[in-house]
Amino acid sequence: METIVGVKDLVLGAPLLVLFFISILPLTIKVLNNNKEQRPYAVLLQAWMGLIIAGSLYFLQSPDAVLGAFDTALIFDGVNRWMSVFLILISGFCLFMSADNIQTRGSQFSEHTFLVLSSLIGMLIMSASSDLIVTFIGLELMSISLYVLVALSKEQVIAKEAAFKYFILGSLASAIMLYGIALMYGSSGTTYLPDIGRIVSELLVEDVIYQIGSLLLLVGLLFKVSIFPFHAWTPDVYQGAPTPITAFMSTGVKVATFSFLIRLFSQGIYEGNDFIIQLLQVLIVLTILVGNIGAIIQSNLKRMLSYSSIAHSGYVLIGILVLAVNPRDGLAVAAVMFYLFAYAIVNIGSFGIVSLKEKDENKTVFVNDLNGMAKTKPITALIFTVFMLSLTGIPPLIGFFGKLYLFSSALQYEFYWVAMWGVIGSVISVYYYLRPVVNMYMREADKDIEFARQDLNTIGIGICFLLVLLFGILSSNVLNSIQVSL
Amino acid sequence: MISLVLFFPLAIALILAFLPKYWVRPVALFASILEFLFSLHFVYHFDKSTSALQFVEQVAWIPQFGISYFVGIDGISIWLVILSTFILPIIILASWTSIDDKIKTFHISLFVLLTAMLGSFVAMDAVLFYTFWELSLIPMYLIVGVWGGPRRIYASIKFFIYTMFGSVFMLLALISLMFMAEQQLGQMTSNLLSLYQLNIPYIEGAWGNPQALMFLAFALAFAIKVPMFPVHTWLPDAHTEAPTPGSVILAGVMLKMGTYGFLRFAIPLFPEAVNEFTWFFMFLGVVGIIYGALVAMVQPDIKKLVAYSSVSHMGYVVIGMFALNAYGVTGSIYQMLNHGISTGALFILVGMIYDRTHTRKIADYGGLAKAMPIFTIAFIIITMSSIAVPGTNGFIGEFLILMGTFLSDKAMGVAAVVGVVLGAAYMLWMVKKVFFGEAGKVVKETKLEDLNTRELGIVTILIIMVFWMGIYPKFFLDYTQVSVDHLVENISSYSLEVKVGE
Q1: Do A394 and B138 touch (CB under 8 A)?
Q2: What are the start-end ranges of the H helices in B298-325?
Q3: Radius of gyration, alpha carbons of chain A
Q4: CA dist., res. A483 & res. A337, Å (int)
Q5: Closest Cα of chain A to B171: distance in Å?
Q6: How do the residues of chain B divide into helix, strand and coil, expressed in percent and rounded to 5?
Q7: Are A360 and A336 spatial neighbours (Cβ–Cβ below 8 Å)?
Q8: A374 CB near a chain B CB, below 8 Å?
Q9: What pLDDT shows up at residue A138?
Q10: With a cut of 0.95, is the ipTM above it?
């Protein structure tokens, strides 16, 4: 395979290049300025400039074209465009939050921004990649930046422990995944997904090596989205990381990885692989149960939200399961994307509210800290309630429609048990999602609730709130525009 | 017009959020009366000669799945709509002084709740129905949890989880129905009129019998809401802990969402399964009647007694429905309204006395009749209605239900009559202990004032309704008759049309 980088490749890859150059801009300015830190808002402005340019470049691509760059190792199609714009938005909101949060706005904000943006580039690569090696590069770029981001926190104990845990386990998962890729390459002779997809039916019957390889690849990816039994790192890392980074990890990583999983499964890599289909069903049910039951006993708000994010990964995986049966099911793809969208805006908003309450870096927010918030901060309490209800899946909020679409596609392929355990999981989740609501509305405050002043973060939360209400009722329009672009 | 009635409360809820505190109550009262007058439009313009849907409005909502905003009213739902809008001003009046904390949130919850309840009565699209059905949980949860008694948090979460547990399975059955529509009608839809036409496979005796499973999924959701024995355990907790207005709206309207669901969804959609399970649900209904009555008999707490009497009364509604003949179904619809009025009134009266004495223990009372004569008269009239004395509304409902039950299943009828006797026993017993005999502790210690004008007004309206419905039921039954006849005659192949010219 001879690869020549042409103008077309550069044009299509422009968003990634723009983001790369912008990401080193704050660092360069800092170095040229005798290593003096710029003001956080100046850095934020530069980063947002990059995000806006990159985002609009995606809009310039014609909406229904499937374009390949770098010898089609990167494919820009409908799914990718949606996911990319979406990832860019997620990063933008998280940067809002980190420019305001005490843990991140401190001395190294330029480096922080650089790392967020390079992690974003990794995510964008992952979501566009159709070659296993390129995927691996994207995944590592994303993960390594995140390891450092977790460690950058000014908090000294839990953050360092979290970073270390995340790094060790993450590296192990990457190694397993790389091993899987090697095995797949060994048996199929290529790392290019469409090529593998073409010969997969022959490989499946005969080749044990290929089967093991594809399983290990899946393990590596499932680790990143914290599917049971690869979920154990999640609560510790999410708790230890600075809150804006938790928001970024719990949404960005999932969107990127699921975006690649969509690509992987719709190329038919696992089509008709009964073992994988069986395995996924079991994993989905266990993930939903483990996530939801684990969240019940948490008193730390961030830990509770991280267990809930495990459960939500389980729900999203239902759509992937459907793709394993029928790789060309547009509804399942749209359902997965819609669910991710619903989950991500709510999660960013919720972590934003957690971040509002963090006044110094060593303070953890407990569920009980919300006591009596409805009296002192009625609007924030209302917004947080809406977020929690949306995560539970109460209509007419956006989370309900996400679940409706996913369960519909599960029932279409007669995965009755999966859907049943899925809804039972929702019922369990009522208990812990309502706990903050109970505390906010039904208990009296033992002390005054004070918020740190965080203007940008507040704007971000407000936008998320509007999206939750609006796209709940207008969900069909969103779903439709996703489906059209596939 | 339906949309106006449906979303007017929501708009009011939004407006209330921006009003200064002292304006909240008057505006809420005014708006709720206005809303009631709006809803009377349906009564005046209702065509009693047809079973078709009237006042229909339809807009596509999620076209990919064939889900639409589709609302309409027929003989089965019309009085439930009116009941909901009628109860709201009464509740606002009844809570005028008893709720004094966070009144803004309280009234907003009430109005959102009204929209949700009305929505589930008028929705003719299954997913739309589900949306309103679930939406109603949130305000009710807040009402119980924020303004309730000492164990309010436990009670409110129990209420939420129970109802949610029932309804998620209904959602799954619903989605399966929509896919069945795709196979049989060529496109996915959750339009109820199309779903009625489905031919849902019924495989006798098979474990995976699709129709039976779907029926049970729907029935579980509704049975929890009604609530039927043995899934009734959330109700006494919720009632006891809820503030008076919460109990009134819960007993008055929300429980009817369950029985209405049976009539609108479970019975017409799954005729063969209904046939199979009729005896089972009648049996549970009868058990509910007798069990509720027996447990009510030993309650030391007035409010808990009324709550268990609710379980008992809703048992009548269930057996009437599953008698599947015109008497039974008519009686059961009528009994829904009666129960709304008389149990609602009982809760209001209990609330009034509780506001004065801050105790609900029967043992603390005694000889109240001397201290509060007007209150006593009102309470006894409502009690008569609750135990179905001829001339009151309860008599008509129970009589029709028992007639229907005897026609379809004699044994169940006999058992239900036992319940009537028990019902009279526990209510009269309680009345005797509270109002007559020697003056009890609280009656001696506190200076009790009789009803004031506001309270008297509420009670008078309710008593007028009791007698109106008891003496001239024809006015109400005329509206439901054609629809009910249409339902019981075509039970195995039910269909519903939109009224021509709409």
Answers
A1: yes
A2: 302-322
A3: 21
A4: 10
A5: 8
A6: 75, 5, 20
A7: no
A8: yes
A9: 93
A10: no
